[in-house]
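Hey, resending since the last one bounced:
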Amino acid sequence: MTNSTWLNMLGLASRARKLITGEELVVKAIQKQKVYAVILSEDASLNTKKKIQDKCSFYKVPLMIIGNRQQIGNAIGKDERVVVGIEDAGFAKKIKSLIE
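The structure tokens again:
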């Protein structure tokens, strides 16, 4: 697996409008069980990491901590992004398999 393959797939999911970005929006989507996976950047603050990890474990949403905020932001064509929720089961499964 190259580092860029999961980022390319993340960009594809973004163009398909199957991503939620931003900490508060992702937390709400996790609570409503509208996301199938969450990607958190490695350089997120400790407070953000704890909040997202707790929500994902409670609601049993797969969490992947990978990349940095610049990589994730560039992949989806936006500024720096710390956390991204994937709203499509197919994209979530494919990105998870590429990361693992």
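Strands lie at 19-21, 37-40, 63-65, 83-86.

Sorry for the duplicate.
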